[in-house]
């Protein structure tokens, strides 16, 4: 393969058979269970990177079922998102993600910098309860339960506003000598969001200690609220808003 061919065709690895196709990536009937909980401020300070600002000691624990996503297929995901502020604008910092499909793991890490790891999250409907779990190998790391569609949310504008807010990631790509070659704060948005149904209800959340899935590093002190909704959306591409390796960079 000639050098000019590599320059023209390369966008992901492996060179001749990439793990995922080019975007955009559209998601249909994406099902969210989001349990918002209160945690310790000191724990948040230890993981939220500057120049992001912590708003309050709150974490949103998300279980997401994605049965139909272009390019990435059918998979389930879970993780923690921390409400933050950047230059006066509120958004979310994606702290952890665990999922069961190779293509979105590779694509998410390589394109945006999503902190994705391979594990086994699951959302199931058991009678009057939505049961959500995360196993890392054989170990149970998270359990979330929510009453099934207890109350219809008729005004979905607050949910839509939250979905359209900016999200932030730390993208890290190592150099061949093991040092950091890329270390950037990335911002991205969800686009063309249509909420097709939304419900609230009582919920509980348990997080357990695990060396490779340290969810309990942000311990649950109190469950604040829970929401269950289904949406179609497009995952927008990102932009670099801060380069940690540039000594002249200013927040």
Distance between the termini: 42 Å
Structural domain count: 1
CATH T-level fold name? Acetoacetate decarboxylase-like
SSE string, helix = H, strand = E? HEHEEEEHEEEEEHEEEEEE
Describe this structure in words.
It is built from four helices and 16 strands. By secondary structure, it is mainly beta. The chain has helices spanning 3-9, 41-45, 102-112, 157-163, and strands at 25-38, 53-54, 58-69, 73-86, 89-99, 116-118, 120-126, 129-136, 139-147, 151-152, 167-174, 180-188, 190-200, 203-207, 222-235, 239-243. It has a single domain (20-243), classed as Beta Barrel (Acetoacetate decarboxylase-like), CATH 2.40.400.10. The strands form two sheets. Strands 1, 2, 3, 4, 5, 6, 10, 11, 12, 13, 15 and 16 form a twelve-stranded mixed beta sheet that branches. The mean pLDDT is 96. 12% of the residues lie in helices and 53% in strands.
Topology:
Elements: H1 3-9, E1 25-38, H2 41-45, E2 53-54, E3 58-69, E4 73-86, E5 89-99, H3 102-112, E6 116-118, E7 120-126, E8 129-136, E9 139-147, E10 151-152, H4 157-163, E11 167-174, E12 180-188, E13 190-200, E14 203-207, E15 222-235, E16 239-243
Parallel strand pairs: 5-6, 5-11
Antiparallel strand pairs: 1-3, 1-15, 2-4, 3-4, 4-5, 7-8, 8-9, 9-14, 10-13, 11-12, 12-16, 13-15
Gist of the model:
It contains four helices and 16 strands.
Based on the model shown, name its key terms.
globular, single chain, mainly beta, 251 residues, 4 helices, 16 strands, four-stranded antiparallel beta sheet, Acetoacetate decarboxylase-like, twelve-stranded mixed beta sheet
């Amino acid at each position: 393969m000639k050098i000019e061919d590599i320059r023209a065709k390369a966008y992901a690895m492996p060179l001749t058979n990439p793990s995922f196709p080019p975007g955009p990536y559209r998601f249909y009937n994406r099902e969210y269970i989001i349990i918002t909980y209160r945690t310790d401020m000191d724990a948040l300070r230890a993981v939220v990177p500057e120049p992001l600002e912590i708003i309050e000691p709150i974490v949103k624990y998300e279980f997401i079922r994605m049965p139909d996503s272009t390019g990435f297929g059918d998979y389930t995901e879970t993780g923690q998102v921390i409400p933050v502020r950047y230059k006066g604008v509120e958004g979310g910092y994606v702290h952890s993600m665990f999922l069961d499909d190779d293509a979105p793991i590779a694509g998410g890490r390589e394109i945006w910098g999503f902190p994705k790891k391979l594990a086994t999250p699951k959302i199931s409907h058991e009678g009057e309860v939505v049961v959500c779990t995360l196993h890392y190998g054989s170990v149970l790391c998270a359990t979330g339960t929510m009453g099934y569609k207890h109350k219809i949310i008729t005004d979905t504008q607050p949910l839509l506003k939250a979905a359209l807010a900016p999200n932030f990631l730390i993208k890290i790509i190592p150099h061949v000598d093991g040092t950091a070659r890329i270390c950037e704060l990335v911002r991205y948005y969800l686009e063309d969001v249509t909420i097709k149904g939304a419900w609230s209800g009582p919920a509980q959340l348990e997080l357990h200690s695990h060396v490779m899935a340290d969810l309990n590093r942000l311990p649950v002190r109190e469950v604040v609220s829970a929401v269950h909704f289904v949406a179609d959306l497009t995952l927008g591409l990102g932009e670099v808003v801060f380069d940690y390796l540039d000594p002249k960079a200013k927040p």
